[in-house]
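discrete fold record:
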Amino acid sequence: MKKHILASLILAFSGLSHTVYAQQILRLGVDPTFAPFESKATDGSLQGFDIDLGNAICAQAKVTCQWVEIGFDATIPALNARKFDAILSAMAMTDKRREQVAFSDMLYNTPNALVALNSSTLSKDMASLRGKNIGVAQGTIHETYAKDKWASEGVNIISYANQMEIYPDLVSGRLDGSLTNIVSAEQGFLNQQQGKNFAVKAIIVDNKVFGEGTGIALRKDDNQNLQLINQALAEMHKNGTYDRLAKKYFNYSVYP
């Protein structure tokens, strides 16, 4: 009798564990102001490569995605305060960030660009930048690079809440240029009507500052979700899901 009861309890517990896992929610923090990676559609819904990628990861791992919108510069403190489980918001994997969070396997790797008017003489040459107003988004690697490398050389670095707030000031002439991700610049600005008179003036390379690609950030002690995400990514590369999503957004490979 006791053995029968014990067996029944084990089966019930196993069934409960399976139910909890099947209903698991993966909460993803995102700043939807960085098209084509993450932005908002006219109806307010989230859209972009990172959004599709996150939803595909959840589908592959058989968990439910829950998106939490937040300003980019607040994402790491909010993650470590357990307001969500991971950051999926075009976050570069830098040594400085690795001191605070763990990263998934690489999602993609894209160059960083200086954007200005077609007629501008701006380049990565410091003489062309000195005295100019350069817009960057707060909390990004672009802000870090510009302040570390350019500010002390007489370049005026102006930080904005997000990249989308920079473009109007670029168009109006309040800014001389902006340092940002090249894919976001192309699809979120240069390929739009407002950006028709602008171009990429220089590609900026610095692996120490910009890191080695983009990943999903997690709390350092969250090995369970790290394993779940990496396993899902590996399967998506094998079954073609990643390539299918990438081709939807990009004309060239973003995964080395």
About this structure: The chain has two domains: 2-109+212-249, 112-210. The chain is about 40% helix and 25% strand. Residues 112-210 form a domain with the D-Maltodextrin-Binding Protein; domain 2 fold (CATH 3.40.190.10). Confidence is low (pLDDT under 50) at residues 1-23.
